[in-house]
Every structure is written in structure tokens, then in C-alpha cells.
Amino acid sequence: MIDQNFGALVLAAGKGTRMHCQRPKVLMELLGEPMLWYLYQSLAPVFEDRVWTVVGHQADELRQAFPGHAGRMIVQEPQLGTGHALRTALPELRRAGLSRLLVVNGDTPLLPHSILTHFLSESVLRDTQLAFLTLVLEEPGPYGRVVRAQGKIKAIVEAKDYDEERYGPEPQEVNAGIYCLDLDAVEPLLGLISQENRSGEYYITDLVGLAVERGLSVEGLDQGCDPHLMGINTPAELVQAEEVLRQDLVRRWLERGVIVRSPESARIGPRVRLEPGAQVAGPCEIVGETVVECCASVMGHTFIKNSVLRRGAVVHPFSHLDSAEVGPDSQVGPFARLRPGAVLESDVRVGNFVEVKKSRLARGTKASHLSYLGDSEIGEDVNVGAGTITCNYAGRMKHKTVIGKGAFIGSNSALVAPVPVGRDALVGAGSVLTKDVPAGEMAIARGRQRHGARKG
Ligand code: UD1
Ligand code: CA
Asked: How far apart are the CA of 440 and the centre of ligand 1, in A?
């Protein structure tokens, strides 16, 4: 259906003024991924690499966020409206040999794949020269109004410019901002768009009236009130769209055999992979490339990003995991923090108020309470007592702590790295270790308890 002359253009150069934010609007996130990511995801299977993006003054930020798309980003400077954005991009698209173009507003990230492919096949089959998607809204708000006469498209008139005397009573049908253009037919019209409107901008929507006047075939494909096609212009619209997406994703996981308790408060990002038989309870936020394997369980009030939970692992409430791996049957929390590079092998226990960073804890090891374990390599079946701290930072360099299999670290010990603690060694409670502890030995490094008469 889609040939090499058919490409897509995302309009993403707008300032996003209504969002009151310095960052490009299309980089604002829904469930941990930028708006633009979602659009690229739905366009890639259809258009492969024939996807161009019109970007504005923060072009560098967008290029950094999507290096794979950077080569096809076209700068529109200044931003004089959606019609001007298309006009700016057209020479490059023509040089690339395109003759048919899908244009999508960058602030409509939830465009469903099924609607996209239906729209494209309808436009191609009917050989429509200008087609666009429409919505029917009880309150048409700021959307462009679709003007029809006897069912036939006449024009799109922007909300600000709508004049009932000229166009009749306001319709509820509005423009969704997704167009399919036959470039040979539409290109000559681009120079005819004017800035004579309330915004003083060149509107892409003016192409519709111009095309109708010249007898081109123009179609508006009605999608009812599908919330996936809503544009995101304001913070309120951002969270509404995020909620639509959130519900879609939770429903999908339930259908695939994942137990999602309190589903109304489970936030699960689009790149997360949950195996059937995994359990998740809201409220929680699981984002990035997280994997939760079968029989693993995430309890409520947790945040998990880019982490892996192997079979039977349990993350108890109020835990925070970022780029960590929790091995089979290991237990984390409540109130634990696993930072990047924390790797728990199988049957490990990391309890309340334990922070682990860039450390590997081997099978059966326990750090049950109040510890900081950073830059360390901890062998199997080690007992890390309450209050153990690996002092890994000497002001300039980080040093590694290595603790051998079966060692026992007494409570409230500070291990001033680098101090290897050998296999089966024992460290007495309250020690500040600055020297190596050989395998099988006991070390105590603390002041002796002294007694004397109480004064006063
Ligand atoms: C636009 C449509 C409106 C439609 C609505 C659907 C126009 C004139 N109006 O209105 O009919 O109902 O979308 O959501 O097109 N952009 C650029 N360069 C610019 C200006 C905007 O690339 O100079 C980009 C923006 O980043 C945005 C998209 O175009 O992603 C749409 O612009 P926006 O200002 O949001 O248009 P709306 O007022 O929502
Ligand atoms: Ca918009």
C-alpha cells in the first residue's frame, strides 16, 4: 500500500506557549516517554525511515532526544504557522522524491495505528488529493471547525476566525490535525495561503478551502469523539491524554494475564514488559525498559524505572528502583532504594532504609536494615548488619568494597574502602575498618568500653 514516494511529516516547531514551559512541547512526557516518541512509534511501521520533522528554535534538544531522526529534522525559523511549517519542509521532501505526504501535528501523540492505516488506505484507494481526519466534539473548543454543505467539505475555519454569519451555526465537527496530501495537487496552493486571520499566521487548514475552490477531491474522515486524537496544548490536556494512555496500557496487561490490583492508580509506561502471572499493585509507577517476570510482584507505592525483576522477586511498598536488577526470589523493601547498577542475585534480601548503588549482592545475602552499600562486590550468604556503611568516596575517587562469601558484618560498621573482607570473616559491631580482614578472621575496630564512677 505504501510506496517509496509516500512519506510523513511531523509538525513540531510550535512554541507550545499554552504549556508555559521552556522545553519543546513535544518533549513533554506521557508515562515517561516524550510525546514525539509515541508518534515515531506509530509512524515507523508504516513509513520506515521516511519520516521528517519540522522543528523550531530548540532543534538541538530534539536532535539529542532522537538522534535517529536528527538527519530528517527541518528547521522552521521563525515559526509563522502550520502552513508555513509545511512550506518550509516541502523543498526537502520533494528532493527526497515524495509525491504523497501524511502530515501530523506533533501534539497528537496517541494516534492509534488502526486509525492511521485505515486513513491512509482510504486516501490512497479513493485517490483523494487532500484528506484529513475529523472529530465530533460536544464542545469544539479551540479546534478548527469543519464547514460542510450537503455533507461535502467546504473549508476548515479556525475557532478564532469563525463567523456564523458567513459559515452558518458552529459545527461540532472539528479538524484533528492529521492530513494526507497529494503533493502535485497541493503544492501550487501553498503560495496562496495568507496571514490574514486573527492569529496573523499561515494556516495549513486554509489549504482545504483553496483545494475545494479549485475542484480538487477533498475528504474529511470522521472519527467521532475518539480521545486518542485530541491535541495536547495545555497541562490539563497533557494529563487527560496521559490518563487515556494509562487506561489503555493497564487494560492491555490485564487482558494478557497480568494481575493489576487497584488498576486505577497503576502507571505503567509503554516500554515496560510484564509477563503473564506477574503481579502489580497501584499506586505505582513502572516506567522505561522495566521487565517484571512471571510470579514476580510489585506492591503499591513503588517507583521502578529501567529495572528487571526476575521470577518470584518481590518489591515491597515504598521502594524506589532505578536501573537495578532483582534476582529470582529476592525481596526488596519496604522503603528500600536500589540505584543504578544494583544487582541482587537470587534469594537476596534488601530491607528497609537500605540504599544500594553499583553493587552486586550474591545469592542468599541479606542487608535487612539501614545500610548504604555502594561500589561493592558482596559474596554469597553474607550478613550485612544494620547500619553498615561502605565508605566508598574519599573526596576524589570512588573505591570498591569486596566482601567474601559467608562473611558477617556486625551492626553499625563503616568499611572505609578499599578494605577487602575475606571469606567467612567476622567484623565486630561498631567497627570502623581501615585495614583488610583476611579470610576466616575476626576484626573489631572500635574503642574499648571503659567504666568509672559516675560524677555529679
Ligand atoms: C491546529 C489546527 C486546528 C486543529 C488542531 C488539532 C491549524 C492552523 N490549526 O490547531 O485546525 O483543530 O490543530 O489539534 O493548523 N507548528 C509548527 N510550526 C508553527 C506552528 C505550529 O510546526 O509555526 C506545530 C506545533 O508544534 C504543533 C502543530 O504544528 O505540533 C499544531 O500547532 P498548534 O499551534 O498546536 O495548532 P492548534 O492551535 O492546536
Ligand atoms: Ca495543537
From this structure: 71
The DSSP annotation for 403-431 comes to: E-TT-EE-TT-EEESS--B-TT-EE-TT-
**Residue 357 near residue 341, CB atoms below 8 Å:** yes
- Section 369-377 average pLDDT: 97
Give residue 55's Cα distance to chain centre. 20
Q: Has 57 been annotated as catalytic?
A: no
Q: For position 16, what pLDDT does the model report?
A: 86
Residue 161 Cα to ligand 2 midpoint, Å, equals 16
The β-bridge partners of 321 are: 304, 338
The residue nearest atom 10 of ligand 1, judged by CA position, is 143
Mutate to test the pocket of ligand 1, among 19, 84, 105 (most ligand atoms within 8 A of CB): 105
* Per-residue pLDDT tens over the stretch 156-183: 999 999 999 999 999 999 999 999 999 9
Q: Are 310 and 294 in contact (CB under 8 A)?
A: no
Report helix, strand or coil for 261: strand
Set 57, 118, 228, 369: catalytic member:
369
> How confident is the model over 1-27, as pLDDT tens digits?
589 999 999 999 988 889 988 889 999
Q: Which of the ligands is closest to the CA of residue 179? A: 1
The Cα–Cα gap between 50 and 71 comes to: 11
Q: Which atom of ligand 1 is nearest to the CA of 55?
A: 22
